[in-house]
Amino acid sequence: MTVLGTIEVPECPRNGPPPRARRILPLSLSAEAAYNFAEDRLHSILRPANGVYADLAEQDLLWIREPFRLPRRFDHLSPTAAERMGAVPAFVADLDPRGQYSATLGRKWPARNLLRCWHRQHAIVMGVKRVRLQDLTEEEARGEGFVTRGAWAATWDKQRKSFGYRDLWKSNPVVLRIWLLPQWSPIGKES
Question: Which top-level group of life is the source organism from (predicted)?
Answer without folding.
Answer: Bacteria
